[in-house]
Write a structure and sequence with these properties.
mainly alpha, 62% helix
């Protein structure tokens, strides 16, 4: 057990070291790009009304989620696959254990990106249903949508979504090491689609999710809020009839229809349980 816990701490530490420089870089990049190509001109992201709330989400939720996710994966390997000992755990962490474990890591990474995006597309649609919306509403509550809004997720939304998808892919052999190294791309991609940019991406809008594509998803339900569920690859929306990109129009209003929704980080975490 001590070996497994030590492995968890190593993974968590590596995650922290990666998130901080990525966050600084993203802040500079999107501040610069928004100055020239804002979808909705107004206050810069660091002057948002709920900036403290978003900063809390940006650092605390991903860190906690990654710690729990990777910890469960590493410790789960010890019990599901009976993998024990430092050498065996390191091998599992590097190569995985299952039918896909023999594939090169770059193939595992590509498989992970495509498979996780497909599965999360359906989880995303599930969270827009009546039973789960109270948790996902936290993510949609941002009225000044920008890159730093990307991490505004309730822990339940993360646990019964991203974490479950990761565990499922682990069971077929995707290595935890691959998941960890894909993390920075996923973070940058999520920040990009939430950024306050007027980029439609032209014909590439059918290939890769962009800011305008996803900003339509954050509008009211009768405008586009129940469309564009894909996080990275819009092909899922095209295949299942949920693609929405009106020509010569840009989204201009975001948030949810709940005037009593709290603004603070702690109150938002409690919100689904007192509704």
């Amino acid at each position: 057990m001590l070996v497994e816990l030590y492995s968890v701490l190593l993974v968590a530490g590596a995650t922290v070291l990666k998130i901080i420089p990525i966050s600084i870089a993203l802040g500079i990049v999107f501040a610069t790009l928004t100055h020239w190509s804002a979808c909705n001109p107004g206050r810069p992201w660091w002057r948002k009304r709920e900036i403290v709330t978003d900063v809390c989400y940006w650092f605390l939720i991903p860190l906690g989620a990654r710690f729990v996710r990777i910890g469960l994966l590493v410790m789960g390997a010890a019990y599901i696959y009976n993998i024990h000992g430092a050498e065996a755990l390191i091998k599992f962490y590097d190569n995985g254990f299952g039918p896909l474990a023999t594939l090169p890591l770059w193939v595992q990474a590509l498989t992970f990106l495509i498979a996780s995006d497909f599965l999360l597309y359906w989880f995303h649609r599930l969270y827009h249903g009546a039973a789960m919306w109270k948790y996902h509403a936290v993510h949609h509550s941002s009225e000044e949508l920008d890159w730093i809004s990307a991490a505004r997720f309730h822990p339940v939304n993360i646990l019964f979504g991203t974490v479950l998808v990761d565990v499922a892919l682990l069971l077929v052999g995707i290595s935890p090491n691959t998941m960890l190294w894909v993390g920075p791309f996923s973070t940058a991609s999520s920040a990009f689609v939430h950024a306050n940019l007027n980029w439609t991406l032209g014909p590439l809008k059918y290939v890769i999710a962009g800011p305008v594509f996803h900003r339509w998803h954050h509008t009211a339900a009768d405008r586009g809020g129940n469309m564009n569920f894909a996080g990275t690859f819009p092909i899922w929306d095209l295949l299942f009839g949920t693609f929405y990109m009106p020509k010569n129009r840009l989204p201009d209003a975001y948030g949810i229809d709940d005037h009593d929704f709290p603004e603070s980080f702690g109150a938002q975490l409690l919100y689904p349980f007192w509704r």
